[in-house]
UniProtKB/TrEMBL annotation:
This is MET7A protein. The keyword Repeat does not apply. The keyword Transmembrane applies. GO terms for molecular function: S-adenosylmethionine-dependent methyltransferase activity. Residues 77-174 form the Methyltransferase type domain. The chain crosses the membrane at residues 7-29.
Length: 246
């Protein structure tokens, strides 16, 4: 739990961000955040994050072709596609279904689709990770999820849906920021920033220990690596990257 000094600093941060808390109280912040602020911010931050995480993503997605279905095609579902910064890493001819709970990323998304014409784009679903009912069970070879599990309402329900839509032998790929080591300064600052960060950044939680959820999910094989993707002034350096096989 947060220490007294963390709670004090947390209150100070909330004071600094009082206009956002007020707008939230009035019901104005959430729709503005979803439509305008978050897509704009995410595009800016994902530029920096993509540069830092590029080598990890190249390594992560290298074995995607191994999971092609019996037909020789690779059917891929991306949860929380955002503006499509992962498209560049997918193999040619891959059939991509995009899904996001927030439909306001169109601009960046169509830009990245134009840039990555080596892929077949099947459809765009407005859906939460916890509810992929539009995707039939066992119908995809791979599911990809990067920087999304921090803000889903339920990590375990999302992973249940991932396992449902994957065919047996299919793979779930992830790269997510997670809670820091509890004795570290990073974790202290994650505790300080937590409530304000969650409000400002559309429900993003800083202190999730997502490796535990992944270990509890029923993957037959799971590869997890703890890495650091440091972005200046952001308490999100600790990440996990890897994949699980159904």
């Amino acid at each position: 739990e947060a220490t007294a000094s963390a709670l004090l600093l947390r209150a100070g941060l909330a004071l600094l961000a009082w206009p956002v808390y007020l707008l939230s109280f009035l019901g104005i912040w959430e729709p503005f955040c979803r439509k305008v602020f978050f897509p704009f911010f995410l595009e800016k931050i994902s530029g920096a994050h993509d540069k830092k995480s590029k080598k990890y993503k190249q390594e992560l997605f290298r074995n995607l072709p191994d999971f092609r279905g019996p037909s020789g095609e690779l059917r891929l579902l991306e949860i929380g596609t955002g503006s499509g910064s992962n498209f560049q890493f997918y193999p040619a001819g891959c059939r991509v279904t995009c899904s996001d709970i927030n439909p306001n990323f169109q601009e960046g998304l169509s830009r990245n689709m134009k840039k990555n014409q080596h892929l077949h784009y099947e459809q765009f679903l407005v859906a939460a990770g916890e509810d992929l009912r539009q995707v039939p069970s066992g119908s995809v070879d791979a599911v990809v999820c990067t920087l999304v599990l921090c803000s889903v309402h339920s990590v375990s329900s999302t992973l249940r849906e991932v396992l449902r839509v994957l065919r047996p032998g299919g793979a779930f790929y992830f790269l997510e920021h997670v809670a820091a080591e509890h004795s570290s300064w990073t974790y202290f600052w994650q505790q300080v920033c937590y409530p304000t960060w969650k409000l400002v950044f559309a429900g993003c939680c800083l202190t999730r220990e997502l490796w535990k959820n992944l270990e509890e999910a029923k993957f037959s094989e799971l590869k997890i690596q703890h890495i650091s993707v440091a972005i200046p002034w952001m308490p999100i350096a600790p990440h996990i990257v890897g994949y699980g096989v159904k």
